[in-house]
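Data availability (excerpt). All sequences and predicted token strings are deposited with the supplementary files. A representative entry, ABC transporter substrate-binding protein, is shown inline so that the format can be inspected without opening the archive.
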Amino acid sequence: MTEPPPTPTPCPILHLDLGPLDLNLLGLHVHLNEVVLDIEAIPGPGNLLGNLLCAIAGLLDGIDLSGVLGNLLQNLIDALIRLLEGLGAGGAARPAVPPT
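Structure token line:
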């Protein structure tokens, strides 16, 4: 007798936990109790989307996203300041710092 193949370990993709929400949308009142959404990808033979999402989810393991996003945001702010200074509107945006 052959044993069934082992069950693959799901890869967590998204965990969204929303508390109660009260919305007033132009006169339409919406009350939503707690919503918990869990999305998992299941790898294995024939599970093309599960295999793809598990591979993508593993790409960012061990990367400090806060540092990467912080640097990206700082670069964007610096570019906007340079753009405003080029337009003549950013003279007071940031004091000039002598180059080191």
